[in-house]
Structures are given as structure tokens and as C-alpha cells.
Hints:
The chain is mostly beta strands. The chain folds into 2 domains: 4-36, no CATH class; 45-88, no CATH class. Helix content is 0%, strand content 43%. The protein is built from no helices and 8 strands. It has strands at 4-7, 13-19, 25-31, 45-47, 54-56, 63-65, 72-79, 82-88. A 3-stranded antiparallel sheet has the order 1-2-3, with no helix packed on it. A hairpin with a 5-residue loop joins strand 2 (13-19) and strand 3. The protein is elongated and about 65 Å long.
Amino acid sequence: xxxxxxxxxxxxxxxxxxxxxxxxxxxxxxxxxxxxxxxxxxxxxxxxxxxxxxxxxxxxxxxxxxxxxxxxxxxxxxxxxxxxxxxxxxxxxxxxx
Length: 97
């Protein structure tokens, strides 16, 4: 039996059935970007500590405000492509900046 790929038309899911042996098979399920919370390839996001939604972050920015709950966070950059919430923003100037 050969491998079979099934695509649902109205759902953003791709299911692939792979035959591993005569009695076993492997099912791979892929979700499109819209099913993963809207994250695009290469987009830098952090997760809001308050509402748990993803917040897009511009590269190199020191502050980000959640558009859903309006809380501002300080951002640190462990490496150029990874943003991390450092803490809440309490004043006019970020701590340590």
C-alpha cells in the first residue's frame, strides 16, 4: 500500500498517512499558520503574561504593549531573533536601559 495524503477543504489541516509496516501506520498532522495563532514564519512574538495571547515584537525594541489587555512589558534579547519578556514596565524609562 502506498502513502496517502488527505487535505480537508474547509479546514486548515493536512493529514498524511504513512505505512510503517504491514500492520502499523503513522499519521502526521500539519496545521497551517492561521491555526497556530497567526504566527508567520520569521515573525518574532512573545506571549502576554496576563492574557496569554501572542504579541508581535519589532526587532530590537525595548518595550511592547499587548494590544488585547494594554499591559506594557520590558523586552530583552538573548539573541537577535529571540525576544523575552523581562518584566512589567512601571515608569518612563525601562530599568537597566
